[in-house]
Amino acid sequence: MKLPSINFKKLKKRYIVLGIIVLFILFSIIKNAVTPDDSKEFFTVEQGEVSETIIFAGDIDMKDRVNLGFGTSGRVSQVFVSEGETVKKGQVIARLSTNQLSAQLLEAEANLKRVQAESAASGVGFEYSYQNFTTTKEQQDTFVQNAYRKLLSDSLEVYTEDDTDAEPPTISGTYTDTIEGDYIVTTYSSGSSSGYSFKYTGLESGFDAIRTNTAIPLGEKGLYIKFTEGQDYSNTVWTVSIPNKRSSNYVVNKNAYDQAVAERARVLAQAEDSYLQSQALESSGNQISKSQADVIAARARVDAVRAQMADSVITAPFDGVVGLVDIAQGEIVTANTPYVTLVGSDQFELALDVPEIDVAKLQIGDAVSITLDAYQNDAEWQGVIDAIDVIDTLVDGVPVYKTTVVITNPDERIRVGMSAKASILAETKEGVLRAPRYFFERTEDGFVSRIMVSEKKDKEQSVVLGLTGSDGFVEIISGLQAGDILVREKTVE
């Protein structure tokens, strides 16, 4: 049997064509598999951190800075301080010439003595009884106040319920208020030189850096707190009770105060009874007698001149350092104009104007990162929010809330008046699902995104979003899971 002949040339040509077709198909498959769609953008939903940082601009100032002036106009007779000098509370800083007022005071005091003598000569004891009553009242009030101040300030101590080996701080000074209660002192790690800072709440609120072996003011009511060097003061809570009912002296001081109150009531009752009897003899019906009216008018004149003389003196309202003196001896000054600047501490602070849309995101005690325009981003300081006004202030017609940040690690580079920026971490969430905010679109019913179903197909998915971070990422509460691939059309530049 004769086999048919095979046309190898024709068969070879057929295989070549078939091979080209196969290669073309494979090339198309590979191309579609490896070449992305340049018109779309993708992101895989991941777990991570979403945080919101708010940035405000403000100016550097100093804590406890006050501008002082005279209460009346006149010529400066003496300036007792110079810039940089330390002064004590009540110390006289400058004085106006009071020659004319001194003469008026002598005249007024002489007139008062005259009408008092005439009243006594008339046989009426009203003036004597009045003076006796007021003097007795002042004395008894002082006795009671001293007893109460001792009750509140004696044997104050710091105690804690925490399990800590840290040595308790000590309290010194005299409590100047009359309100009883507690100071709650909370310590925490910070960037201060000691490594710690503290905040206090209760009777007063505030913050300060811990400076060991140095007494630090605990508020503005006369008390000081002193921490011991070498102690671990991180995350401890201490209590200072006013008064200290745990002290063995409390009962003794309480009895002394109660006795002073009772004695005051008894002595004043006697003095008041004598005064009222004299007043009844001096007055006729509801009309004040002429002698009584003359004495009252003369005393008022003396008080008025003394008030004018007090307005002619600038005194230090607290211990501090004189920062500026803008007056000289012989100069004419006007009333209620600042001429002296007094700084009560070396603590720098940053004043911020916070819009109402952001004020709810801030709390007293929040940490703040600070940069100064003078140094751009070459240096950074740390601070804490010390105060937030409860009443708004209009700035260019916009309501803002004055917020004060205390700088916890100041140095010689900081100057009053420098412009600064404050970065505050308002909120942070860790370990949440997140993706860039621009992958989501807002609709009437909420937010939607598109997720990849296959290489050629995607679908719309409803989602619930949470916190939007400052870096553009947003928290995904529900609707997606880790690993989902988000798709969006690229924006045409």
Structure description:
The protein contains 6 helices and 29 strands. It is an alpha+beta fold and 493 residues long. Among the domains are: 40-50 and 430-489, conserved putative lor/sdh protein from methanococcus maripaludis s2 fold (Beta Barrel), CATH 2.40.420; 54-62 and 344-428, Elongation Factor Tu (Ef-tu), domain 3 (Beta Barrel), CATH 2.40.30.170; 65-97 and 312-343, OB fold (Dihydrolipoamide Acetyltransferase, E2P); 156-246, no CATH class. The strands form 5 sheets. The chain has a 6-stranded antiparallel β-barrel. A 5-stranded antiparallel sheet has the order 7-14-9-10-11, with no helix packed on it. Strands 3-18-16-5 form a 4-stranded antiparallel sheet, with no helix packed on it. A hairpin with a 3-residue loop joins strand 10 and strand 11 (206-209). The two termini are 77 Å apart.
Number of helices: 6
Please identify the top-level CATH class of the domain at 54-62 and 344-428: Mainly Beta
Relative helix content: 25-40%
- Average residue pLDDT: 84
Cα-atom Rg, whole angstroms?
A: 40 Å
Number of strands: 29
Question: From the structure provided, what is the oligomeric state, counting identical versus distinct chains?
Answer: single chain
Instruction: Quote the distance from N terminus to C terminus.
Output: 77 Å
Morphology = elongated
Strand content: 35-45%
Unreliable stretches: 31-35
